[in-house]
Amino acid sequence: MTNQATPQEKKLFTPGPLCVSPTVKQALCRDMGSRDTEFIEIIKNLRDTLVNIAGLPRDEFTTVIMQGSGTYTVESVLLSTSNREQKVLIIANGAYGQRMKTICERAQIPFDILSFPETQQVNVEDVLKFLESPQSAGLFGSVAVVHCETTTGIVNPIENLGEQLKKKFPTMTYIVDAMSSFAGMETNYSQVDFLVSSANKCLQGIPGFGFVICRIAALEKCKGLAKSLALDIYEQWKGLEQNGQFRFTPPTHAILGLRQACKELEAEGGVAGRARRYKQNSEVIKAGMAQRGFKQLIKEHDGHIITSYFCPAHENFDFQKFYDGLSDLGQLIYPGKVTSADGFRVGHIGHLNAEDMEHLLKCIDQVLQDMDIPCPLK
Ligand SMILES: Cc1ncc(COP(=O)(O)O)c(C=O)c1O
User: Are 333 and 186 within one domain?
Assistant: First the structure.
């Protein structure tokens, strides 16, 4: 890996799409027929590999691949798992939890939302208290939560929530949006019924599709529930199982990219190896930003996927100028997404290493100097 971004190709310190390796890019350079036996075999192996990466047993779990971006996959799960007689309880502490609410509103899926502040982790006790209250009795069929809320980078306690939930409500369906954390954080997903992620986050494939790792027993109950043709995960699963093919045009090149990316994940030492590199990336950035006087928005449970910073208070600071200055140096950071503060985000995931992080910090120094802002900040 080199930290020299070319003028055409910038380093992406973003929540996605992310930098991918040259070998993943090379893997795309091949046309494949969607109904060819070789491609059908690749899909089958990829579906199995994703269950293995999740650390789940293949006789209980299966992967359904969904064309489109991550949101399409989240939407497909909410549409396909709601029986419309019981509500979905959405637990939100950021924009992606709120997006699930929008999906339910649009699709007229009955739901309630339990919102926590964007700068705080979801509180498991509060969720259980809410579900155990007499007003909630029999009302909810599923609970949906985001693992790493990419809005801020905060990591929600999905393992503990799942354990408590299944202990107290064994029939409750547990849906987790692990879009930005899957394969980048070591996690026990054994309580999760529908686990959503996409090809272009910590797996380091290219954008084009998402996937759901489904508990087969829960998926079997989804027949006929989706009020959508394309976003029906049950029908998509049946299609993949019956002849190994997608019902509609598959993202053939992106699938070849993810196949290569999964090989590279394994070579890196699996999820543990990848999480180690991302953690190191985040440590370099967090220490370097603190030295320069930048303040983090999240003080606890901030994980190692993406970090949010307050914009400096200096009168010369203008986010767009800061962003453009870094972009001119081939470094792309990301605007903030919280509603309560002006800030920006720096992602630590993708095909990036500690050297790239050090280089970004040097570029930040240069841009601050160009903006006539003394560093360290006051
Ligand atoms: C946690 C989470 N959920 C959902 C999404 C939506 O994914 P997409 O932008 O691919 O539709 C994202 C995107 O970053 C995300 O981080």
Answer: no
Counting from 1 in the atom list of ligand 1, the atom nearest the Cα of 16 is: 14
Query: What are the residue ranges of helices labelled H in the chain?
Result: 22-27, 37-54, 70-81, 95-107, 124-132, 158-168, 216-219, 233-243, 252-267, 270-291, 319-328, 354-370
Give the pLDDT confidence score for residue 4 in this predicted structure: 60
Domain that holds residue 168: 22-267
> Is 247 among the annotated ligand-binding positions?
no
186: pLDDT strictly greater than 80: yes
Are residues 207 and 347 both part of a single domain?
no
Could you tell me which residues come within 8 angstroms of residue 258 by beta carbon, excluding any fewer than 6 positions away? Answer: 46, 199, 203, 205, 206, 209
pLDDT confidence tier of residue 110, bands split at 50, 70 and 90: very high
Q: Tell me, what's the pLDDT at 150?
A: 96
Number of structural domains found in the chain: 2
CA of 177 to the centre of ligand 1 (A): 8
Ligand 1 mean position to 132 CA, how many Å? 30
Residue 1's pLDDT band (boundaries 50, 70, 90)? low
Same-domain check for residues 200 and 63: yes
**Nearest residue CA, atom 7 of ligand 1?**
70
Residue type, 47: R
Tokens of residue 228, six digits? 């959508």
Q: What is the band of 378 on the pLDDT scale with cuts at 50, 70, 90?
A: confident
How far is C-alpha 181 from the geometric centre of its chain's CA atoms?
5
Q: Is the CB of 3 under 6 A from ligand 1?
A: no
Cβ of 209 closer than 6 Å to ligand 1, yes or no, is no
Does ligand 1 lie within 6 Å of residue 180's CB atom? yes
User: How many angstroms from the chain centroid is the CA of residue 118?
Assistant: 17
Atom index in ligand 1 nearest the CA of residue 73 equals 11
Minimum CA distance residue for ligand 1 atom 9: 70
Look up the CATH number of the domain holding residue 330. Answer: 3.90.1150.10
Looking at the structure, tell me whether residues 101 and 191 fall in a common domain. yes
Residue-wise pLDDT tens digits, 226-243 = 999 999 999 999 999 999
